Amino acid sequence: AISTLNIDYPIAILTYDASLEQTGTVTFESEKELFTYMQNMSSTEYFSVKYPISVTLGDNSTLEINSDVEFKASVNAALNIEEAIDEAEDEKEDLEAILVNGTFKVNSYINAGADSASNYVNTTIDFANDWKVKSMNILTTIATGTYSVTSDTNVYLQIGFAGSTDFSLFNKTWKVTSFTSSTITLESKTNSAIKLVLKQI
């Protein structure tokens, strides 16, 4: 089964005999009904899908399918999404390790084209392995909060700071656009004009 492709029921099939004469139409309200019917078909019975049908892919997009060719294309699209989900899960685990094992500074924070990284000079951000995060200025903690790393076909870093107006600006769900062991580049999930780059010190 392809976990990233779901047929939207009800659907109907056209049935045929061994002479390929159409014998009827059968409608199914669920995958279970379709599976049971297929199991009980004889070797002299044939069928074709009555198009159009709708399918939902793993990224929540919906497609209308009008032919066997289009259905095959939707299966390939679903397989690509499934592969992207698996890759994002692996990247999520890599990013979690990088966050926990490092201490970071704000390399840039861009909002509508303006970089305000200078507001974060001499401050650091530390991600702990208990999903807590804090920012410090020399030896003084200036903000604390929590974070989480999630994934679908992309990887996301969600940050929630309290105690500092400057650091509360980072309280967003960030799409991870790229990362290495030393640099993490983020983009606001809801506003692509807001970008944050964290660099390991």
Brief overview:
With 201 residues, the chain is an alpha+beta fold. 23% of the residues lie in helices and 46% in strands.
Characterization of this structure:
With 201 residues, the protein is an alpha+beta fold. It folds into two domains: 5-86, no CATH class; 102-200, Lipocalin (Beta Barrel), CATH 2.40.128. Helix content is 23%, strand content 46%. The chain is built from three helices and 15 strands. The protein has helices at residues 31-39, 68-100, 165-168, and strands at 5-8, 11-16, 22-28, 46-50, 53-57, 62-65, 103-111, 114-115, 123-127, 132-137, 140-151, 155-162, 173-179, 183-188, 194-200. Strands 7-9-10-11-12-13-14-15 form an eight-stranded antiparallel barrel. A three-stranded antiparallel β-sheet has the order 1-5-6. Strands 3-2-4 form a three-stranded antiparallel β-sheet. The longest helix has 33 residues, at 68-100. It is elongated and about 85 Å long.
Supply the key terms.
201 residues; alpha+beta; Lipocalin; eight-stranded antiparallel β-barrel; three-stranded antiparallel sheet; 15 strands; 46% strand; elongated
Strand content: over 45%
Distance between the termini: 46 Å
Structurally, the number of domains stands at 2
Task: Predict the CATH topology of the largest domain.
Answer: Lipocalin
Number of strands: 15
In terms of structural class, how would the helical and strand content be classed? alpha+beta
What's the architecture of the largest domain in CATH terms? Answer: Beta Barrel
Alpha plus pi helix count: 3
Major sheet strand order: 7-9-10-11-12-13-14-15
Can you tell me the residue ranges where pLDDT is under 50 for at least 5 consecutive residues? none
Using the alpha-carbon principal axes, give the shape: elongated
- The average pLDDT score comes to 94
Rg from Cα? 25 Å
